[in-house]
Amino acid sequence: MFLRPIIYLVASLLFLQSNGPALAAERFITVASTTSTENSGFFQAILPLFERATGVAVRVVAVGTGQAVRMAERGDADVLFVHHQPSEAQFVADGFGVKRHDVMYNDFVLVGPRHDPAKVSGMSDATGALARVATQRAVFVSRGDDSGTHKRELRLWQAAGIDVAAASGTWYRESGAGMGTTLNIASGMDAYTLTDRGTWLNFNNRGDLVVLAEGDRRLFNPYGVILVNPQRHPHVKAADGQAFIDWLRSPDGQKAIAAYRIDGQPVFFPSTDNDAR
Amino acid sequence: MSEFRDALRTAIALLVNLDGDLMAIVGLSLLVSLSAVLLAALVGLPLGAAVAACRFPGRQAVRVLLNALLGIPPVVIGLIVYLLLSRAGPLGALGLLFTPTAMIIAQWLLVTPIIAALTQQTVSDLHDEYAEQLRSLGVGSLRAIPTLLWEGRLSLLIAVMAGFGRAIAEVGAVIIVGGNINHVTRVMTTTIALETSKGNLALALALGMLLLLLALAVNAAALVARDVVNRLYG
Amino acid sequence: MAACDTEHQRTGDTTNILPLRVRDICFDVGGKRLIEHISFTVHAGPCLIILGPNGAGKSLLLRLCHGLLSPSEGTIEWAKADSSRARNQQAMVFQRPVLLRRSVAANAHFGLRLRRVPRRQRQAVVSEALRQGGLTHVANRAARVLSGGEQQRLALVRAWTLQPQVLFLDEPTAHLDPAATRAVETLLKRFHAAGTKLIMTTHDLGQARRLADEVIFLHRGRLLEHSPANSFFAQPHSAEAAAFLDGNLLW
What we know:
The structure holds three protein chains of three kinds. By secondary structure, chain A is α/β, with parallel strands linked by helices. Chain A has helices at residues 3-19, 35-39, 42-54, 65-73, 85-93, 126-136, 148-159, 164-167, 179-189, 197-201, 238-249, 251-259; strands spanning 28-34, 57-63, 79-82, 97-113, 140-142, 172-174, 193-196, 209-213, 220-228, 261-262, 265-266, 269-270. Chain A has two domains: 27-106 and 221-270, Periplasmic binding protein-like II (D-Maltodextrin-Binding Protein, domain 2), CATH 3.40.190.10; 108-219, Periplasmic binding protein-like II (D-Maltodextrin-Binding Protein, domain 2), CATH 3.40.190.10. In chain A, strand 10 (261-262) and strand 11 (265-266) form a beta hairpin. The longest helix of chain A has 17 residues, at 3-19. Chain A is globular, with a radius of gyration of 21 Å. Chain A starts with a helix and ends in a 7-residue tail after the last strand. Chain B has a domain at 37-188: MetI-like (MetI-like fold). Chain B has helices at 2-17, 20-53, 59-69, 74-85, 100-136, 141-151, 153-169, 172-178, 188-197, 201-233. In chain B, helix 2 (20-53) crosses helix 6, helix 2 packs across helix 7 and helix 5 (100-136) crosses helix 8. The mean pLDDT of chain B is 90. Chain C is globular and about 50 Å long. Chain C has one domain (19-245): 3-Layer(aba) Sandwich (Rossmann fold), CATH 3.40.50. Chain C is α/β, with parallel strands linked by helices. The A-B interface holds A 6, 9-10, 13-14, 16-18, 20-22, 30, 35, 38-39, 41, 43-44, 59-62, 73-76, 177-181, 183-184, 187, 202-206, 233, 235 and B 24, 28, 31, 35, 38-39, 42, 86-89, 92, 95, 97-101, 104, 179-185, 194, 196-201.
């Protein structure tokens, strides 16, 4: 007796689902990217420009670089947009991606409490600064999530000759979370952490945290963009995905990247230089 | 405490301005969770009632399973649905990953055991009370299910609302299968997670307050509906 | 009430399911024998009262006859009817009325609705049944807020709509005050007048004397006596029955 209205309701809901927010007719690509680009507000600023120019909507799924790469390997994205060159190279070498392109870069900074117990303020030697943090056993919050930032941080610790695995749970804390969550933790604990500049600039819960060390060549943070290989995953929207990559590298795209600022400060710097890798 | 004051002010501003993006997010939250709960009720109510009222082989196992599923973390459900719907997964060809439909499926899986387990409790008690009378009237156990469900309607509404509460509040599953894509799969909880990670704590808390209001409104509507039904049918 | 064995008003299937033959039945629960080798035959007509102290097995025997329980040994057979046909000609009213959380009218409709009787046909039967039960004025009230006596009468009304040949009653007035008990007994007499065979358990001797044409006396799961009401109350055969009638409740 109540069965018929329920069936109608379900049918109309399912209909709504397939035709509602995710319009079947709408052209879109899915981009697997990192929390740093999403949290910095970067995509929200530049994507409308691309969408207006091409009519292709871009759906960004923002996760850690490790997860983003895995997602693209499974064919769940059309374009991979991350910042860890070894993973990117491996992705292409394994045949999951067509080709890696440079699009932009920024840098990592070491942030920490204003009173700076490890006395790293003003240093430009990243490994030297980390070594002091370790010596002082000042609390350091690591991403601990296999992201691009995490991998970079581990490489720096290695270069500084410090075995953080042994210190895990003491002064070295692994949040296992995205950049923003990790910054929230560091801010709550008055701890040091390594962050990309974009997320830092857009982060509003800094508490006592300030940028303490920056400018090391080894803190250079290039972003790469890769079309997922349509030969591997035939459903990949190769033409629209390539259009997005081309636009990012076009004068219009590069200008848009340079134009995105937070509090007057540039967040990413356009770049198409390192294509050879 | 200033965060709470800021959050309250922000929440009021959000309510006053009724920003279009925010309304779309609220609408999607409701659409996804209400659809999931409706579908979960369609399965969970008869399933719970069948486990309570019918004797069949494996009944005890189903009971234990339902109770165990109550404790499963949303993230695990999200992961399972992700792996199923992923292009490399068995249902990849449907192209449902990162759509509201995927979120409904995940929440449906999350909520069905809750509704079924609570229904099982309620209907079990009713069955003790009615079983003899119904058999005397010639009602078999299958035919008894709709009768028992209707008799338990007041308690079962609470079961369904508990399911809705879990659906609207969870973030772990929908963020994995939905991807928190702006304007496509962004709902209240994933927005709160995002704003928190941006350090916009006041905004995140304000959104949390709106979510609470939303849950209150839906629950109030359910209670009103219950009273109306109560008056109509005694 | 012996004079009540009058014309049959029942419609529908007129094949009488009586006599009911109970042959040598036993009923065990958890290795304990609660009904021991009981045999008797129930014929159409008189009102049969099953008497006995608490724990004698009265309710069990009633449920076995009605088919809610199956005997561990022995057989229970209705004349000229397979079990599902026979079921449709029976109804049962329990010690505590089992009412749906719906209106009085909806409860009265429920039995016939289950038998897929169209609403238009139901209407006449139900309003007549409500009238017989004196519940017409509360038809639209919630059944669960009625008094205990009214609830039990509603249970009887629901049974009435089914026009059963046999009505089982398990201590239907055990929880009622004397006035409500009288109202229920009046209604029972109307059932009987309409040709329904009553099979009822009670431990209320006064009620048994008022209603019974025929008595079965149970004690500790055994049938000790099965005799016409007059002779049972005047001169019980067994010492247990005599003690029970004297109010020396045995166990």
